[in-house]
Specification:
The complex is a heterodimer of chains A (432) and B (151). By secondary structure, chain A is α/β, with parallel strands linked by helices. Chain A is 21% helix and 31% strand. Chain B has one domain (3-141). Chain B contains four helices and four strands; from the N terminus they run E-H-E-H-E-E-H-H. The chains are: A alpha/beta (432), B alpha+beta (151).
């Protein structure tokens, strides 16, 4: 498989007559975009679109998902297959990427499971989406008593439609890439014979699937209903994985993070040098113990069948999903497959509590994305997009988190992407 | 050996929603146990059952919230009918290990555990809703289908 990412760098977003990009300025026809998302009868009449740029004194709250605008300009299938587009396989050809921009969906769904993005100030240092030029969709349901599942789907579709619309419009107006990145990924036959002497390594990609509103979609299929399966890393770049999650903001793997998965990016970079990156294995995080046992056994069996020497394992969420992470870890290790785990921690505000809900002796190589319980004070912003009072109910906040002057005191848990368990975060450790 | 699936919960909305349904032949859930107390009290009730030989069907920890943040907890267990009241000879050691570990985690933060009555009605309903949502699939496995608009 070969995929070219045609990156057009976005330095600014503005409203204007025609949606397109010129000299790094992404112009959005607000009326046309509003008409597009208003097509959905599940959404209310008071929809709005706004812009939030890096450095602005702007707070977005409550954030549901973040999506990077992409559109396939060559090759089979189209972005977000099975959800927005047809189900045809993606991951080959050419895809236009509006790098540096993002679509942010904001609206109350499951209120304590949405997040905060500050575009400047101390909070901005903890979210990667303070560095993107954001097109913010302010959404509401058609009726106050609407079923939450329907509303979640409507919000998800509005975000995906907008992301595709922006990139498609730019492609149609002849946008040229500032940079072309070429990714190749060998088939299993070639991977088995390639790079003799290097260890064969896979990526065990755990997706949150605990139930409705805690779901992730693979080619439009609800992942909690799949047996673990193999997937090319290039398919992920074309939006084969879409977030439908309402989980804690800090470690919600947004659709943007799936599209830009840094584990995949770095494994591809080190492929052929440090190891032989054979494939991704996608698995789920279900609620019943029978499902947890079945999926962990099946996913590690696939790794063993492929003759992998090691797997990198990432999870989404914490608590109950830690049990899946640990089962995957010890089952792989006992099959002779080395593991490295990527997670975040909930170690209390003082950092002294047990930080993972589960553990095993085989889990001796673990990377942390940070302590989600760390406290942070977010000073007031000049402009708030959304509903600031939600700070009092978001997980990581409490009644009284929002002060009268607009200051918010919360744990990092409330900040979108602060402790991303795919490692898409500014937190980290460096050897000096 | 005859066994029954039991739902143990302190979520009154979920309890009512399940108990309102007729118990059909296909429905394997035969019992409901409402715990009037905290999420930790639910786990202690489950621990008591596990120590009498019950097996966990769902993981005792909640997902994606710190234990103290989610005031509701619901767990499905399978009890052997004959041994419900007396200790049995064979415990499910995985279940014992999991529930003991979960109780320890909850006890470590017991002074911060949110009680349902601590929350305003709207927020309390949101937490109850998510607790129910996370049980929806598991309940369906055992023949109990919650309506889409239970709240």
């Amino acid at each position: 498989m070969r995929l070219e990412l045609h990156r057009v760098f976005v330095k600014r977003v503005t409203f204007g007559d025609k949606t397109g990009i010129t000299d790094g300025v992404l112009t959005v026809n607000k009326k046309e975009l509003l008409e597009l998302i208003s097509e959905d009868e599940l959404l209310g009449k008071n929809l709005d679109v706004d812009i939030a740029l890096p450095g602005d004194s702007v707070r977005i709250i409550p954030v549901k998902d973040v999506i990077e605008p992409r559109w396939k300009i060559e090759g089979s299938g189209q972005v977000f297959p099975g959800v927005l587009s047809d189900v045809e396989t993606v991951g080959e050809g050419k895809t236009l990427v509006l790098s540096g921009s993002a679509v942010v969906t904001a609206g109350k769904i499951v209120r304590f499971q949405e997040g905060i993005i500050d575009m400047s100030g101390p909070g901005a240092e903890f979210t990667p989406y303070s560095k993107t030029c954001n097109v913010v969709l302010l959404l509401e349901p058609a009726r106050a008593d609407m079923d939450k599942h329907d509303y979640e789907q409507a919000c998800r579709m509005a975000g995906l439609k907008t992301a595709a619309y922006l990139a498609r419009s730019c492609a149609a107006s002849g946008a040229k890439a500032d940079k072309v990145e070429i990714y190749n990924h060998a088939n299993i036959k070639e991977a088995m014979w390639g790079h003799p002497g290097l260890p064969k390594v896979g990526y065990l990609y755990m997706l949150q699937t605990q139930g409705l509103l805690h779901d992730t979609y693979l080619y439009g299929v609800d992942v909690k209903k799949i047996l673990p399966t193999v997937l090319s890393p290039l398919e992920v770049m074309d939006g084969a994985i879409v977030s439908g999650n309402c989980v804690s903001a800090c470690d919600k793997n947004s659709t943007y993070v799936h599209q830009n998965n840094p584990v995949i990016a770095n494994m591809l970079k080190r492929h052929g040098r440090d190891f032989n990156f054979v494939t991704c294995i996608v698995t789920n995080e279900n609620v019943t113990l029978a499902d947890k046992r079945r999926s962990s056994s099946y996913a590690t069996k696939l790794a063993a069948m492929l003759g992998l020497d090691g797997v990198v394992i990432t999870e989404e969420g914490f608590g109950n999903p830690d049990a899946d992470l640990i089962m995957n870890c010890w089952k792989a290790e006992r099959l002779g497959i080395k593991t490295a785990l990527l997670t975040d921690e909930y170690a209390g505000q003082d950092g002294a509590s047990q930080s993972l809900a589960d553990s095993c002796v085989e889990g001796d190589a673990c990377v942390t994305a940070g302590n989600a319980n760390e406290l942070i004070v977010l000073p007031p912003m000049k402009k708030v997009l959304g509903v600031p009072e939600e700070a009092n109910v978001i997980a990581g906040g409490w009644q009284g988190s929002l002060a009268a002057d607009g200051t918010i005191t919360v744990e990092l848990q409330a900040i979108t992407g602060a402790t991303s368990e795919l490692g898409y975060t500014k937190l980290g450790a460096f050897t000096i | 050996m005859r066994s029954e699936v039991i739902l143990v919960t302190n979520n009154t909305e979920l309890y009512s929603s399940v108990s309102d349904q007729k118990f059909t032949v296909n429905q394997k859930i035969k019992g409901l146990r409402l715990v009037e107390g905290t999420s930790l009290d639910v786990l202690k009730a489950v621990r008591g059952a596990v120590h009498l030989g019950a097996r966990l069907l769902t993981h005792p920890l909640c997902g994606n919230l710190r234990p103290y943040q989610q005031p509701f907890r619901s767990v499905l267990i399978e009890e052997r009918v004959e041994e419900r009241e007396t200790p049995c000879e064979h415990f499910d050691m995985d279940s014992v290990s999991m529930i003991e570990s979960a109780v320890t985690i909850y006890q470590d933060c017991c002074d911060r555990i949110v009680k349902p009555q601590d929350l305003c009605e709207a927020v309390r309903k949101d937490y109850a809703f998510v607790d129910s949502e996370l049980m929806r699939e598991s309940l369906a496995r055992y023949g109990v289908f919650l309506s889409d608009s239970m709240f």
